Amino acid sequence: MSDITIRDVRKSYAGTEVVHGVNLDIRHGEFIVMLGPSGCGKSTLLRMIAGLEEITSGEVQIGDRVVNRLEPRERNCAMVFQNYALYPHMTVANNIGYALKVAGMKKAERLEKVAAVAQTVGLGEFLDRKPGQLSGGQRQRVAMARAIIREPGVFLFDEPLSNLDAKLRVQMRHEIRRIHNRIGATSVFVTHDQVEGMTLADRLVIMNRGTIEQVGTPQEVYDRPASTYVAGFIGSPAMNFLPATLAEGPVLWLATGERVDLRGVMEMPRGLAPRAMLQLGLRPERLRIGPVGSGAMDVRFEFAEELGSGRLYHLRHEDVPVTVVSETKQTLREGEPVGLTLLPGAVHLFYGETGRRIETTLRSSVNERVSA
Amino acid sequence: MRRAYFKNNWIAALVVAPQLMIIFVFFYWPTSQALYWAFTLEQPWGGGNEWVGFENFRTILNDGRYWDSVWVSCVYAFFTTALAMGMSLILALFADRQLRGYRFFRVGMIWPYAIAAPAVGLAFRFIFNPSAGVASYLNLAFPGVWDPILNGDHAMAMIVFAGAWKQVAYNFIFFLAALQSIPRSLLEAGAIDGARVLRRMLDIQLPLLAPTFFFVLVINITDSFTDSFGIVDTMTGGGPARATNLMVYKIYEDGFRGLDYSGAAAQSIILMVLVVALTVFQFRFIERKVHYS
């Protein structure tokens, strides 16, 4: 078990900086998920921890050692690659045991360990096969076993589930979490799938364009997204955004000229300039549809998608689309005007220019219609 | 694989005709001539051939000098192939590591293949000349240590060097291409698993090179049997005392110098059978056996 400290780490390729000064402290035995779209620098950061990518500037520390100048093998990390990177000419047993062989472990001892590890990931009967004869899920397990057998201080996962089909992905996700809980090694998991991130992580690191947008537990990140970027990335369906101007106190003018009064919902921080440009963020799952004029604002119904357990309503506020997820199933006509009621936790405010979050104090009482 | 069929056969014939012509003129015609000569005996002053069956082959196979030539060819093939493949493999492994300046070396390494064999032979003749070439400094320091003009082994070493040098470029292209088709992540996985550069080469890259390795091996052996004429002719002329009288060179000497068309033709038939056998071996056994995925 090791903790990892990343201090002002930067990475440039031929003069173009792709990771811009990242700082991160990863605790012992923690499961960290780095989340972001492709090209955000998350894999590069992971590879810098692994030692597969040179660190342009800054410092990576694993345990109490600065590892910048250390070879991958000296860093005590195991890694699971996106395409598994199994040695195609070796049997499953040799794939799993290769690290031990390189380390010079006796053959008998090695085979015993390989068999034991293979058993734990359900590969016991495939030891003599070549990777080419295995299914995607089995290859994934070999890659996992190869990482586990080394009993590393740090587990690194580079989008290991993205090549699996949906069902297998969920299954392997659970397996990875189970293995983490049993072994307790520090894990860093890179993915672009927010569901994977939310379900696996002790703490999420959300990255965008080579910087960290937010670090926090999945709950924190969901409840208090630090920026419109994070808010739009975390949660499914994605958060709705409406451009607005601050009127006074928690009262906003929407771009359409409509007034939204949030007095019952939240306290605004002091010091916000009047007429400041804002983004009003609304969580789809914290909105309810009611009769016209019954909520904080009026919208038009477009169509609904059936989810089985509930419905996904597609609405429109002038030309801005608004989605609502609700368990209540209502039958509405296309173009029908309806009122939008805000449940606690529905509203998030962000600065219009920077997209950063405006810290507001939540009122506990459910909002009532104050104005329209 | 889907095949396209031509309805109009004469169009198909027209399209392949130029290629067929070339193959006919430069391969089937000479080969059939050689075959004809191999089984006949040319009259000393011209005026027709006499059918003699396997007499020419019997003469050759009972000739000690022919077997010397076979032995010398095998020695040349073995050492040239080993040296050329070893060198090119090492160079490709390092070019693949993308160390500083690898782009320059990558191009530089391919150039020798564009040089004709006689030119290579001439250049190396100067380099290895015991009294005037670069090697003369060696003789200055240790008198008599290097003398390919009188010493058969030295002469053999000299043509092996030249032949291998020329072959390195060709092998290098294949090895580099094969190395670059190995996914980077395999080597990274190896690095994470604790293997150093050399260990990764041995355990991961070389095994995955096996199909290319055997292909190049057969090509090299074939090449050193058939394509060594230019080098031998310019460097040693088969000497000293037939120490470098390879099979191809002996065919030329017997045929064009000794004017024994029939004997030379029979030898070239034997050489052809040898090359065909090697190629069949390559396709039947090796290509099928060494495969992963």
What distance separates the N and C termini of chain A? Answer: 57 Å
| CATH level-3 fold name of the largest domain in chain A | Rossmann fold
Number of domains of chain B: 1
**What is the CATH C level class of chain B, in words?**
Mainly Alpha
- Quaternary: heterodimer
Helix content of chain B: over 70%
Computed Rg of chain B: 23 Å
CATH superfamily of chain B: MetI-like
Structural class of chain B: mainly alpha
Please report the total strand number of chain B as a whole number.
2
The gist of it:
The complex is a heterodimer of chains A (372) and B (293). By secondary structure, chain A is an alpha+beta fold.
Structural account:
The complex is a heterodimer of chains A (372) and B (293). Chain A has 372 residues and is of the alpha+beta class. Chain A is 23% helix and 34% strand. Chain A has a 6-stranded mixed β-sheet, with helices on both faces. Chain A is elongated and about 75 Å long. Chain B is mostly helical. Chain B has one domain: MetI-like (MetI-like fold), CATH 1.10.3720.10. Helices cover 72% and strands 2% of the residues of chain B. Chain B is built from 12 helices and 2 strands. In chain B, strands 1-2 form a two-stranded antiparallel sheet. In chain B, helix 3 packs antiparallel against helix 4. Chains A and B meet through strand 6 and helix 2 of A and helix 8 and helix 9 of B.
Task: Based on the model shown, name its key terms.
heterodimer; A: 372 residues; alpha+beta; OB fold (Dihydrolipoamide Acetyltransferase, E2P); 2 domains; 6-stranded mixed β-sheet; 6-stranded antiparallel β-sheet; 23 strands; B: 293 residues; MetI-like fold; two-stranded antiparallel ribbon; 72% helix; globular; ABC_transporter-like_ATP-bd (chain A); sn-glycerol-3-phosphate ABC transporter ATP-binding protein UgpC (chain A)
